[in-house]
Model the fold of this input.
Amino acid sequence: PGRCTLCVWSPGLDERGNSVAGVAALDRFTTLTGLSVF
Done:
């Protein structure tokens, strides 16, 4: 909270309705920055 806002969108949804590429991008972002999406 108070740091940034991040949104991802990409076609190609998984069985839960999440963007496959978006989830991968967020995973890489959190790994590289050490930030949490929660």
In short: The helical segments are 20-33. The mean pLDDT is 90. Residues 3 and 17 are 27 Å apart (CA to CA). The two ends are 9 Å apart (CA to CA).
